[in-house]
Amino acid sequence: MTIIAAGTTVPDFVLHRGDGSEFTQQDLLGTTTVLVFYPFAFSPVCTDQLQVYEEALEELREQGAVLYGVSTDATWSQTAFKEKLGITIEQLSDFEPKGAASRAFGAYFEPAGMTNRALVIVGPDGTVAWSHLADSPGDLPGVNLIFDGLSAVTPA
Amino acid sequence: MGDLTSAPIAGPRPEDHVRGDGELVIMYADFSCPRCAVAALDLQASGARVVFRHFALKARHPRAVALAHAAEAAGAQGAFWAFHDALFADQGHLDDPHLWARCERFGLDVARFDVDRRRPEVIARVARDLREGMRAGVTATPALLRPAR
Fold it and tell me: Are the C-beta atoms of residues B23 and B146 closer than 8 Å to each other?
């Protein structure tokens, strides 16, 4: 599966926030969005990833960007994961139909039936500005890559 | 705040905490991290020249950042490495009374220690280390970096 390419208009998708409400492509408009696709809540690498990304939220806000965690875990599991880590990164669930949104972004790992580890930055116009697919789901992309990618965003 | 784009790791600087005289290793670590304690022992046994930098994440452990500040405050009294070793040697005792006990064991001025660990420059240094580590791609601890010569 190939990750969605820069310059592509974001496809239609539906994810679910922690309160169960829908999060769709309409929610991306007007703001720079960083979607962090990760395999599993509570897994070791995903734990490391969200803990270190949490440290970058202030800089992201300064750049007008909002970061979300996306996985195929249920909203309840994501909420428990977030609470356990003590982080504030909002979680978006791709639970049912499982992985449909992740597949639309090319961020699904078919061999293991899980979200792949990928980063997608969407500009305020709803167009993908930058994307990154890890060489393997076990590879953790550094915070620095997100900020390198933000330079590709065209301001609204 | 500011820039978190990619940047190479800074080489040894005068203000760095450095120990050993073998191969240069820049270690990004957290005193609450058990794997860091093991790595520190291995590095010391290897005789490596270790530059210690903090990679203390708020979400990693409730004492991670406080311990980094404490080690810097001990360093202000010439006891960084003694504190480093003592923290890694007993990660079951990391609350303030345990830090004060370590201070007393090393003959440090506890009142000064408590003032120093809250100083803006100490807080800024720990934050700087974290930011530099993130810019170099560090994502977890321990991270052992060997800069190109």
Answer: yes
